Amino acid sequence: MLYRRKNSRYWWCRFTAGGKEIRQSTGTADKKAAEEYEAKLKGEHWRRARMGEKPRRSWEEAVVRWIEETSHKASHEDDLYHLRWIDPHFAGLMLDEITRSKLRALAAARSATNVSNATINRMLSVAHAILRRAERNWEWIDHAPTIPLLPEPQKRIRWLTRDEADRLIAELPEHLADMARFSLSTGLRESNVTGLEWSQVDLARRVAWIHADQAKARRAIGIPLNTDAVLVLRRWQGRHPRRVFVFRRTDPADGEIKWMPVAKAGGGAWRKALRRAGIENFRWHDLRHTWASWHVQGGTPLHVLQELGGWSDLGMVQKYAHLAPEHLAEYAAKIETPVRAVSHTIRHTDGAGKKKAAT
């Protein structure tokens, strides 16, 4: 039956399905439209009870469950960023209404904002992951639509030479200079350097560690500290009771100088230093690439580099292998042309103008 609730302009429907009373707003003040909605709703409940049809679920329901189940992911904040962009396009849609054409339209809309194909692909990957989980794990839909990801150009590994690194460090303020030195010595990611605490450092044993919840692969990492890293850490002892890397700031209220934790390394001061050093197309994360490149060029085996860098699989470090082809030299030599004695005949003339041959 249809009825109106007090202080509501919409019609509500009430009926029994499968022994359960259903009360739901029709979302309309038009009685004819409300009757059509009620008939459709009754049909859906009947098909679920008698024919085993799945209840229809909305995109919003899927997003809420996805967020709850994936909050442990290292990329959780990135996922939320992409979901905020997707929301206006899929809001109000049921999962079975999200088709390939709607995914293509979503990709086209994102492309119109002049972002890279990589950014669009990361967004599509989040949407695909939610739809696949709705199909395979939650059994909310029978089929999860997908579209091919956009082509991404293969980028070269960006790394610095020793001279370039020295030039850049000379242009950085004290705290960023030592953070860069520490990054080049350990290969740690920006967030692990900015968030490093003294409780994670043992200078006597020359080790540091990254807890599992701080690591991208969600696996604890032990960091051996070489002499360069140890010297950096010793310079920062006693400046802050908890955090390792801090910067000096004058409190505007009382003029007192305080040591403040560093929130981000690759900001404005970093970009200005890059310009002064004449270094282009270089991010803070590329310090990690530089560290890995120096290791490979120095002869560190890839499986050792994988453990040092906390990568989850060897494939992640294969991109550095081309920087040290020396270990292949003996195999390249297997097809060398054998060295043979070669006689050279020299023709010259004697004093009388007659040609002579000499070997």
TrEMBL record:
User: Origin, by domain of life?
Assistant: Bacteria
Query: Would you identify the family this protein belongs to, as annotated?
Result: Belongs to the 'phage' integrase family.
**Species for this entry:** Marichromatium purpuratum 984
Q: Which GO terms describe its molecular function?
A: DNA binding
Alphabetized Pfam families for the sequence: Phage_integrase
Q: What is this protein called?
A: Integrase
Domain (Core-binding (CB)) spans 57-135
Could you tell me which residue ranges the Tyr recombinase domain spans? Answer: 155-333
Any Gene Ontology biological process: DNA recombination
Q: Keywords in alphabetical order, please.
A: DNA integration, DNA recombination, DNA-binding
